[in-house]
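Hi V.,

You were right to ask for the full record rather than a summary. Here it is.
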Amino acid sequence: MSGVAEYIKESYIELTQKVTWPTWRELMNSAIVVLIAAIIIAMLIFGMDRLIFFVLDKFYKSLT
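Predicted structure:
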């Protein structure tokens, strides 16, 4: 049981004294980069989906 208490104590010390937390500005910049990347990836996937739909639609219509 003392091992668990020591682990929690060391974890607390590490989080409060050794970790460099980002500033609010750095956090906002990172969030904006992630948001823009997610939008770009979503647009790419949407475009590929539309293209595949178009190609398959033309293919199936040519069979009839």
